[in-house]
Each structure stands twice: as C-alpha cells, then as structure tokens.
C-alpha cells in the first residue's frame, strides 16, 4: 500500500468533507481517492469516515489519526522539495586543464540534459585526486596509465610545419655536427607531466641521443604551444584534438605509442558510477578520447 498516497487522500477528503472535492484537490480521481482511503481503513482495521450521509464526516478513530496523517503528508512534501534541491546542487568535478572552452561548454550542456548541474574545476593532474581526498570536489578525472583507464587519449607530436606523412621519429631531432642553429625541442604541457607519460618520453630521448635541454615541461599549454609556433620550430606533445584547436600538424611518435589515461575518482562510488553511466560519452568527447578526437591535420 502507498501509505503516503493513502494519507494524502484521507487528509484532503477530511479537509473538504467530500470525496469528490477532496479527490480533485489532491489531483486524483474520485475512485482512486476512495480506494486509497478504503485501503488505509483496511490497514488500520478501523473506519476513518462515516459514509451514511451525503457529506462524509470523521469517525472518532479518524479524528485521532488525522493529525499524524497530516504530518506524514507534510513530511513527504518536504522530502520531495529537499530531493529537488539536492538534484540541483552543483556537482563539483575536477577536470584536466588541457581541454578547450568549447569542449567544456558542451560537457556542461550535456550534463544538464542528464540532470547534473556540473560545476567544473580545471586543475593540473597532481591536484585532482587531492581535491577528492579533501572533499573540495565530489569527483575528479584522474590521470592513470592507459592499462588502468576508462578513457584513453592518443598522444603524438604537433608542429607548425607539415612534417610529411607517417610518424615523427625523435631520433631525427638529434643534433648533427653541421647544424648551426639551436636544436629542436620537445615540449610537454602540465597535463603530461605524469610518470607514465613523462618518464617514457625521457627514456626515449636518452635512448636516441637527444640532449637534456631538448625536452622541457612548460608551465601551461599556451607556453608550450608558443614554443612550437615560434622560430625554433619545436614539437608539442599533445592530443589530436589539441593539435586541431591550435591548427598544428599532428603525427604519432615513431618509436613508441603514447596515450593519456583517465578514470573517475570520487569519495562516493555512487558519484563515480553516475558520471560513468550518464556522462561517459560526453566525457570521452571532452577529453578527446580514442574514437572521439579529430581536427588535427
């Protein structure tokens, strides 16, 4: 039995002294109100109304039960209001800084369509898990090795000049004896300053004989991209989507496959599951995950 619905019918009928008017006030059919009151009487084992006259009146038992029934209905209404407010409460989510404003706007719009009032906070990878731990955000997209990831984002090298078809091999950046200009550098952005990306690139640079100065981590994406767009003709480690946004030529790294990996970290597993199930495709588009990227030349 729907106890709240039955009490709502009972209170509305008793307030108006009529099943017809009381049912209309409670926005239910008269037959529904009658069935609910009858079910409540059967549940309690006592009659709530005298039905001998055209206007229903409360029995002594009904008068005793009316105040508590009214409190139950008010509490149920308050619970509905609280639930609606909770659904509208901002969902604080820590995100990578490496994604575009347009992509972020689309993610927020997608979240709204799924009933999530997203309040994003873009921060470097080292800070995102800490914000979850300190409850400053409800969840975060944290950087993990691709083998542990829900979403993977392919990484390659982007340049301002067309490098030609095929991958870019880092060994071609090794300075030659006859080179008179500064050597070309590989620039990492903060999002890729994580062990499973940075350390692999560092080992590769050492293996192919690049100088230590030829690999650097920029303070932000704009600074990293400026080094590529400038006269030294550097290379930016980035995703295809980022290369497309910057109007750069993107190619995979010839010597090894690189990728960012992401999963959801949340204090409550229900929050993590909610993001994965409701916003999984939207988050993949936002990140530029495999199968969702594009725009690079």
Count of separate DSSP helical elements: 10
Quaternary organisation of the protein chains:
single chain
Q: Which structural category fits the helices and strands?
A: alpha/beta
CATH class of the largest domain: Alpha Beta
| Biggest sheet character | 9 strands, mixed
Describe, in plain words, how this protein is organized in 3D.
Belongs to the LysR transcriptional regulatory family. Pfam families: HTH_1. Keywords: DNA-binding, Transcription, Transcription regulation. This is LysR family transcriptional regulator. There is one protein chain. The chain has 297 residues and is α/β, with parallel strands linked by helices. It folds into two domains: 3-86, Winged helix-like DNA-binding domain superfamily/Winged helix DNA-binding domain (Arc Repressor Mutant, subunit A); 89-297, 3-Layer(aba) Sandwich (D-Maltodextrin-Binding Protein, domain 2). It is 45% helix and 17% strand. Strands 3, 4, 5, 6, 7, 8, 9, 10 and 11 form a nine-stranded mixed beta sheet that branches.
Topology overview:
Layout: H1 3-16, H2 19-25, H3 30-44, E1 49-50, E2 57-58, H4 60-88, E3 91-95, H5 101-113, E4 118-122, H6 125-133, E5 139-143, E6 151-159, E7 186-188, H7 195-207, E8 215-217, H8 221-229, E9 235-238, H9 240-245, E10 249-252, E11 258-266, H10 269-287
Parallel strand pairs: 3-4, 3-5, 7-8, 7-9
Antiparallel strand pairs: 1-2, 5-11, 6-9, 6-10, 6-11
